[in-house]
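Case 414 in the screening queue. Each case pairs one protein sequence with one candidate compound; here the compound is MU-OXO-diiron. For every case the pipeline is the same: read the inputs, emit a complex structure as tokens, and attach any notable structural observations.

Predict complex for case 414.
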Amino acid sequence: MDCTDTKRISLGPRQIVKDVYWVGVNDCVKDLFESLWPIPDGISYNAYVVVGSEGVAVIDGVDKHLTYEYIEKIREVIGDLDRVKYVVINHLEPDHHASTPTLLSLARNARVVISPVGAKIIQTLYDIPKERIVEVVDGEKLSLGDRTLRFIYTPWLHWPETMMTYLEEEGVLFSCDAFGSYGALIGSIFDDEVNLEYYLGEARRYFSNIVLKYSRNALDAISKIEKLGLKISVLAPSHGPVYRKHVDKIVSLYRDISQPKLYAKASIIYGSMYGRTEEIVEKVAESLRKSGVLVELIDAARVHPSYILHFVLDSGAVVFIYPTYDAAVFPPVWEAMNYLYIKQVGRGRAAAIINTGSWGFAVKEAVELLSKAGFRILGQAVAVRAIPTPEDEKKIRELIEKLVEELKKFVSQP
Ligand code: FEO
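Case 414 output:
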């Protein structure tokens, strides 16, 4: 992927199916999505135009700094912005709608279409007059003449107001954040014309960063779409590729990661200031490997939490090994723990804790935070000297035995 390839990232409007156009933009300026998550290859904000015989609907928008590029693309497709009747807000977050007030100032006949929950929140984000807001209920249809939009509530993906929009005649599902991926769109917007394996990998990381906490809602959304019997010819999310050939692949990836299979795998999240704690990490890893456990070593000082969340997704257990720092948990490990707590990653997983120190320890706060993250804490958290005593080594051995026993209930990774 190359976000510096200005020729290949500058995409004009693209037709998706008859009368439906992609008018999104690539963001290769931001280094961190949401000021949190690294996007070394950028990200796309996908927006779409549906041209009906009796009016035009714009589905979602883009982040503020790319507003004019987006509006120019809409203009390129429809000519006069006064043709825009509706701007559909599937999700209010500013990466999709910071552009909307400007679009509304230019598209003078347009009204926004939003769920009632969204209508309650919208004024906290954007100054849009009430008379320009149309609320739609779950399942409601909106006619554009020869084209019909249907709105499907899919709440908490990942905000309370989220919905999807379905274009009935062409079978296009505009899913907003769901099924999205990091990575700017290079050279093409379509799944069969880009490096799909890259985007599927980044869809997994995007999911673990943004949607993970709401996995249950993702499953509910998929099952709702299936029960409605919607035929999806094109799946058009608001980040990443537009799926026209591999709809099944992205849907089954989402289904899998929303209820991840846990393996006999231990992610060891560790920190080490002078190498002593790392020696313990290596011994623990070696013992676990000898017992048939797959081990993934994660140096929290050098691996961003975005990737840590991604890596632990299929681990049956997570081991935290860290030195004491200023009588507290070593900060990079504490940060990782905090992300795991915010995203509630502990559900269904066990955690083991080994804290090293010479004049102080920090165990209690780790146990509390990891318990709040949903982890089941294995045995006693172990506090050991930087150079472990025989007694310390015994405690570590016992903890490893517990881990191996715990992981026996999971299958080995294929
Ligand atoms: Fe892509 Fe939740 O915004």
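Case 414 observations:
- Residues 1 and 256 are 26 Å apart (CA to CA).
- The first strand starts at residue 14 and ends at 17.
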